[in-house]
Amino acid sequence: MSSTFGSFEIGRRALHAQQKGSEVTGQNIANANTEGYSRQSVLMKALVPPAAPGVETPPGYGVAISDITRMKSQFYSDQIMKSLTAQHYWGRMGETYGAVEVFFQEPGENSINVLLNEFFDAWQEVGANPESYAARISLRDQADSLIGVVQDIYKHLEELKYDVHKELEANINQVNALADQIADLNKKIVYLQSIGQKSNEMLDERDLRLQELSELLDIRAVEKANGSVEVLTGGHILLHAEHVFPLGIKEYADEEGKNVLSIVNNLGTELSVGGGAISGILDSYNAVIPKYQDGLDRLVYNLVREVNALHAAGFGRSGSTGVNFFSPIADEGGATVYFAVNPEIMGSNEGLDKIAAGYEENADPGAPPGPGNGANAWAIASLREKLVMNENEEGEGTATFHDFYRGLIADLGVEGREAERMFFSTSAVAENMQRQQEAVSGVSLDDEMLNLVQYQHAYNAAARYMNILDQMLGVLFSEIGR
Fold it and tell me: For 131-165, what is each residue's pLDDT tens digit?
């Protein structure tokens, strides 16, 4: 290689290496704004000839490209995926709490709290004017308004559950589609590695798909020696090499008879997804929305039970007794659906006479005699302050209707604010990790322009070196020809 022709080979390799460096720099510049692209760097090495006894060691063989590497931190990649999983979980939970808050309209003119107060106020008015048809009509209308608002909120919560179910189906389809894309990339990357090549762009695309997958559920990606990645979720394999184990939705009734959703793989194994938007959707469907539906059911059931117990013991204007004010509800579960004024009272004007505002004559010594007195109406109105909710072990109530409802709304506010706080916190972590990753793998146009100038000068120098060798060879041939 110490010959003149060997020197030409050194120059040729130098031109090739500097040209490749310029091409990689151009690729970086072209993808400066490409999402998920990692800056590439050319690694060069000097070619050193092997030592041989008795042979003069030449200066070397020139330069060669040893590798074109991606500038990326695996640590930051893992932290980004973990933070995105938490961020999208709390973001999805926050959306659910926000929707529920809108449905309850607290505080507001048509909120349950206001209408419940007006309902008991109407009973007080009937107690003060038991013979007044206007007071009885107002009571019936107030009861109907309360029922309408409660059932309207309950209906919106049911519609929200339906929408959440559909959203879960869409997200599961997206997970399976991303898994298929990653499996296809695995296949191509393994093939390239088997023939001694690689594609940094494919590795970037696979990392981007994994990042998108981490937004949906908690995953763990393990890179294998052959270049493929294995993806696990909930302790089970979602993707192995080019084989995908697609996810599905299982709907069943729990021990309390309520419909719940879970995620299963193609073998029917139930998975604990542990985070991400899908976990937020599952918690919304299985826990958050049912909690507030159950709260409404409990409020309605106890209100109907307590009002009916007093009303049935009282007497209407015509002496009727044993009449329920609300339609009886047998069970607390789903009570809101059956919440209604007794058709005997609601159906006609004659039903107004069946509103049991009074006690039987002499049943209450402090009340005026006859069924037209308002003592029973006052007793029902006093339920406003009676401890009938949240029974303890002795079966005694510990809260009023208003206390129970305000506690339910307070829980909604606290949980909603907590979800919002956690979302902003996890978003800040994700953004910080992405900035750290960008500092490692992002393309700096200033640095790339500097690299381009360096490669240009090196290429020009190599070309000048080849020109000098050509002149030297010309001199040699001219001398030999003499």
Answer: 888 999 999 999 999 999 999 999 999 999 999 99
Max CA pair span of the chain: 149
Helix axes 289-313, 133-194, angle to 10 degrees: 160
| Tens digits of residue pLDDT in 26-71 | 999 999 999 999 999 999 999 877 766 665 666 778 899 999 999 9
Residue 223 bridge partners (DSSP): 229
Highest-confidence segment of 59-73, 165-179, 306-320, 395-409? 165-179
Q: Based on the domain organization, do 333 and 279 belong to the same domain?
A: yes
Residues 214 and 335 in one domain: yes
* Total residue length of the chain: 482
**pLDDT tens across 288-311, in order?**
999 999 999 999 999 999 999 999
Number of domains comprising the chain: 2
Domain span at residue 355 reads 79-429
Residues 6+ apart with CB under 8 A from 372: 130, 131, 317, 357, 358
Determine the Cα–Cα distance for residues 23 and 17; give it in Å rounded to an integer. 10
Specify burial of residue 235 (Cβ count, 10 A radius: 0-12, 13-18, 19+).
exposed
Instruction: Answer yes or no: is 398 within a domain.
Output: yes
Rounded-to-integer distance, Cα 451 and Cα 202, Å: 24
Rounded Cα distance between 171 and 406, Å, is: 35
Same-domain status, 207 and 352: yes
Q: Is 231:180 a contact under the CB 8 Å cutoff?
A: no
262 and 337 in one domain? yes
Are both 259 and 186 inside the same structural domain?
Answer: yes
Rounded Cα–Cα distance for residues 257 and 252 (Å): 9
Percent residues over pLDDT 70 in the chain: 94
DSSP-derived 3-state class of residue 333: coil
Clarify whether residues 65 and 91 are in a common domain.
Answer: no
Residue 193 included in any domain: yes
Where is pLDDT greater, at 318 or 287? 287
Q: Is 55 within a domain?
A: yes
